[in-house]
Every structure is written in structure tokens, then in C-alpha cells.
Amino acid sequence: QVQLVESGGGLVQAGGSLKLSCAPSGSIFSINNMGWYRQAPGKQRELVASITRGGSTNYADSMKDRFTISRDNAKNTVYLEMNSLKPEDTAVYYCNADIITTAWSASARYWGQGTQVTVSS
Question: Most-buried pick from 22, 41, 46, 88 (CB within 10 A)?
Fold first, then answer.
């Protein structure tokens, strides 16, 4: 069974930084796109950033120049470096990965359990 294990969430003061990690485990043949989403109280879930297997990135406009997504294909791990955090960044952050579990399998999207990020003013 494939699971995505997240770490790095917590409390931080406005202007501070936080780095999230997400490491899938289980039967994994290869991973295509990986990404981060977030859902703030009273808001819809929104894309934060995504990254392809080759390293091409995509960011929501509000996150550009503050957040950086990266991945380590050897470790099957995706990261989200968050800088200059604002109270508006407070949300549950979810990682996801499009995973092929065997050489003959189709890709399927898996999600982490979510990790709380709280930014105090």
C-alpha cells in the first residue's frame, strides 16, 4: 500500500520560514508529477506548487518568490520551502504524487494526510 508521509508543519511567526517534506512509501515503480495544495479555513483547496519528474515547476501567483518546490527523485521526496510567511498562509497543506506502482500499472494520484501550518502575527 502506497502512503505519503509528510513532515515539517507547525507553528511559525510571521516573516519566518518553514520547510515541508513528503516521502511516499510502499510499492513504487516511478513517480510523475508531485505537488502541494493547501486549504485555509473557510476557503477552497488551492494549488500551491507542482513539479514534474524532470524538475519543471509551476506556482500559484501568490506564492511566487516566497515558496520553492523541489524534489529528490532518488529519495522519492518532494519539498516545499516557505519563506516570508504571512498569517494568510495558515492552512492545512497536502502533498500529492502521481505514482506508478509497477512497470505495468497506470499512474494514480495519492495524497498525504495533510499537515497544519499556522503563522502567527
Answer: 22
Say yes or no to pLDDT of 46 above 90.
Answer: yes
Give CA separation, 44 vs 14, 47, 66, 101, 112, in Å.
Answer: 22, 10, 21, 30, 17
Grid coordinates representing 94? Answer: 497536502
- Residues facing residue 25 across a β-bridge: 3
pLDDT in the model for residue 98: 97
pLDDT at 25: 93
Q: Which residues touch 82 (CB under 8 Å, ≥6 apart)? A: 17, 18, 19, 20, 66, 67, 89, 117
Q: What is the pLDDT of residues 86-113, one digit of tens each?
A: 999 999 999 999 999 999 999 999 999 9
Which residues share a beta bridge with 97? 34, 110
